[in-house]
Write a structure and sequence with these properties.
Number of strands of chain A: 8
Largest sheet of chain A: 8 strands, mixed
CATH class of chain A: Alpha Beta
CATH architecture of the largest domain in chain B: 2-Layer Sandwich
CATH topology of chain A: TIM Barrel
Number of domains of chain B: 4
Bound molecules: iron/sulfur cluster
CATH topology of the largest domain in chain B: Sulfite Reductase Hemoprotein, domain 1
Number of helices of chain A: 5
Strand content of chain B: 15-25%
Strand order of the largest sheet of chain A: 2-1-8-7-6-5-4-3
Structural class of chain A: alpha/beta
Number of domains of chain A: 1
Radius of gyration of chain A: 15 Å
Oligomer: heterodimer
Strand content of chain A: 15-25%
Largest sheet of chain B: 6 strands, mixed
Chain lengths: 150, 550
């Protein structure tokens, strides 16, 4: 599957593992629930590890484990739920997280510019999206009034 | 006023391009209605009863003559020849076509105007005191801080999808004319014990369904921390504000449910983490202040004697000066309200011809600038007393000199059933009826200061809950009824009006208002103002009269 990463269209190398599915090989992403339930097992996983957070899940819960994750997915249940914009900002600025932050779920291409500015590196919409058409929206504005998280 | 630099202009032009692309996608069926809705709202575009409504931002109410002429041009070309001043100092058009909106935005951008964030669940236009910079009771001019906030809040990447809309007001004077206690964030310029000027920060105020008076969460904030503090509040709100129920999503509910102490603690903790990285330099503040430097006042403006003579000779002029002008900090100058409350015109409406004429008068008499006010009027901030008589005559010719500012006929009124698809009841028609009932200007003058605010539904766009008399349109089995409140106030002693009793029917509302005013005239002490009489007597005597015939 293709995603947007660092402003380019690339093949996704990660596999999201649903809570009731067996762990896959390679680089996997799990939910917070699964991480908390199967921490030891996941720490022994051969590939890279990622975690998916919903907007109401507090980053503080994984603050001590951030270095275990090469990827943090912030999932958008609906595009109007703007909590992830603050979540990403906090991950970067308060928790100094340097791994990849990815938007998943139902955000819009019209939000790409904002997503990128608050610290998201990659975007993987849950619906069928024309990424070629979407990618210019990362650069809707050439000047801004606020400091960027980057 | 603030002048755009190349960056400001680029942002506007890129915004026009962005919105044009979004509109095209929508019209081609490639952008679903629910998605386009959120995007168009952030550009002030509503779909109303007859046509879209476009709300154009007037940052903290400042307009140049050139901008007024552009607004007139848009009214003529894309609307039915008029515009409407909203209660948040913005300008609304009720009849544009969706397809034409990108073109209108392009026209606006050519005079440094836009519709950015005039609606939607985002940071809205910051409002302030219409007498900023000219009133006598000012601690410091709030406008430079409004501009600093405007820039920070424009396309803030983190706060574009908040739980609900978010409004900030700034006041720099002793008297709060910006209703700061009724905003999501209210900012007051204040001096501390050392005489340094900074900000008092209030949070959690708001009107609408559940009116709440804001609470002070920081008594004194150094100027350099303005943006970091705002950012801390917004981040806490964005993360913790309720998203499960749109009627409970404003920050006032978060503050209430969390408790003001706990909320303040959360904000302060967030602020401590960021404050050192976002300081405003003195240089930056000074640079923005330079745009609001006082104009070249004439030092001997108060030497003019013609003003006094006209006052004595012409009682209509004297009444207009008394009601429609205000003291100015510079001797020999006055601030002049342009009443958009002529008896036969919907409150806040202004025609293209009037807009053009005002632009010319502004150039002639008030340094080329005009302000919009939250009571839906306009203001010339800097008029020499020697020019007042000529200005009055010219305003009178274009029906903009009704001497009723601050009186019962200076009503705030939302568009109501005539335009708004959310309305339960009409408001413009009732305003006209009340005006007809109060057609004796001497009686209106004798009644003195009375704010009547009227909204067509619970959303309360006309701030009825803080009107001295509030009128709220409600729906009763498909019929239009009106709920009356008394004793509301949006100034220093902010208060939410008390319900008088059951709603009254449409054919009774004007009589009810007349009854209330009669009771006041009968019971007032000497010079006692309406609001003070209501406070002294409570609502009972008014209630008895209004309901005795029902
Ligand atoms: S108060 Fe209600 S009727 Fe009036 S403009 Fe607002 S939403 Fe519309």
């Amino acid at each position: 599957m293709k995603i947007i990463k660092d402003k380019k269209i690339v093949e996704d190398t990660w596999t999201f593992v649903a809570d009731d599915a067996p762990l896959a090989d390679g680089d996997i992403v799990v939910t917070l629930d699964r991480w908390q339930a199967e921490k030891d097992r996941l720490l022994n996983h051969a590939g890279n590890l990622g975690i998916r957070l919903e907007p109401d899940q507090d980053i503080a819960e994984i603050a001590a484990d951030l270095d275990k994750f090469q990827l943090i997915e912030l999932n958008f249940p609906v595009f109007t739920d703007g909590r992830n914009f603050s979540q990403a900002r906090r991950l970067r600025k308060h928790y100094h997280y340097n791994g990849e932050i990815r938007a998943t779920g139902n955000f819009l291409r019209d939000q790409l510019f904002y997503l990128y500015r608050v610290g998201f590196d990659s975007m993987s919409p849950a619906y069928d999206e024309n990424l070629e058409e979407a990618i210019p929206r990362l650069d809707d504005f050439s000047v801004t009034y606020q400091q960027s998280t980057r | 006023m603030y002048q755009y630099n190349q960056d400001d202009q680029t942002i506007l032009e890129e915004r026009v391009a962005q919105f044009r692309e979004q509109t095209q996608r929508f019209l081609q069926g490639k952008l679903p209605e629910d998605q386009f809705r959120a995007l168009r709202l952030m550009n002030g575009l509503y779909i109303q009863t007859h046509a879209p409504m476009l709300r154009v931002a007037v940052p903290y109410g400042l307009l140049s003559a050139k901008q007024l002429r552009k607004l007139a041009h848009i009214a003529r070309t894309y609307d039915k020849g008029y515009a409407h001043i909203s209660t948040r100092q913005n300008v609304q058009y009720n009849w544009p076509q969706l397809e034409k909106v990108p073109e209108i935005l392009e026209q606006l951008a050519s005079v440094q105007m836009h519709a950015i964030q005039t609606s939607g669940n985002c940071l809205r236009n910051t409002t302030t005191d219409p007498l900023a910079g000219v009133c006598k009771d000012e601690i410091e001019d709030p406008r430079p801080y409004c501009e600093i906030i405007r820039q920070w809040s424009t396309f803030h990447p983190e706060f574009a999808y908040l739980p609900r809309k978010f409004k900030i007001a700034v006041s720099g004077a002793g008297t709060d004319r910006a209703a700061t206690q009724l905003h999501d964030i209210g900012i007051h310029l204040v001096a501390n014990e050392q005489g340094e000027i900074g900000f008092r920060i209030l949070a959690g105020g708001g009107l609408g369904r559940t009116p709440v008076i804001g609470k002070t969460i920081r008594p004194f904030l150094e100027k350099k921390h303005l943006l970091s503090y705002l950012e801390a509040i917004l981040r806490i709100y964005n993360l913790h504000g309720r998203r499960d129920n749109k009627y409970k999503a404003r920050i006032k509910i978060l503050v209430k449910e969390t408790g003001v102490d706990k909320f303040t603690e959360m904000v302060e903790a967030e602020w401590l983490r960021i404050k050192d990285h976002m300081e405003l330099s003195d240089q930056r503040i000074e640079q923005i202040k330079s745009y609001f430097a006082p104009p070249a006042y004439e030092p001997d403006a108060d030497q003019d004697s013609s003003f006094g003579i006209h006052l004595q000779q012409n009682s209509d002029f004297a009444a207009w000066v008394k009601f429609n002008t205000r003291e100015h900090r510079i001797p020999g100058y006055r601030a002049v309200f342009v009443s958009l409350k002529a008896p036969d015109s919907p409150p806040g409406d202004i025609s293209a011809e009037q807009l053009d004429a005002i632009a010319t008068l502004a150039e002639q008499y008030s340094f080329g600038e005009v302000r919009s006010t939250h009571r839906q009027n306009l203001l010339f901030a800097d008029v020499k007393q020697a020019d007042l008589y000529a200005l009055w005559q010219q305003l009178d010719q274009i029906k903009l000199a009704t001497a009723n500012i601050g009186t019962a006929t200076d009503m705030i009124c939302c568009p109501g059933l005539d335009f708004c698809s959310l309305a339960n009841a009409g408001s413009i028609g009732i305003a006209r009826e009340i005006n007809e009932a109060l057609d004796d200007l001497d009686y209106v003058h004798d009644l003195g200061e009375i704010n009547i605010n009227m909204s067509g539904c619970m959303n309360g766009c006309a701030h009825q809950s803080v009107g001295h008399i509030g009128i709220l349109g409600v729906d009763k089995k498909g019929a239009e009824w009106y709920q009356i409140t008394l004793g509301g106030c949006s100034e220093n002693q902010a208060a939410i009006g008390q319900r008088l009793g059951p709603a009254v029917a449409k054919d009774r509302i004007t009589t009810a208002i007349s009854d209330i005013l009669e009771v006041y005239v009968e019971k007032r002490h000497d010079q006692e103002k309406f609001l003070d009489t209501v406070k002294r007597l409570g609502i009972d005597p008014f209630k008895e009269r209004v309901y005795e015939n029902n």
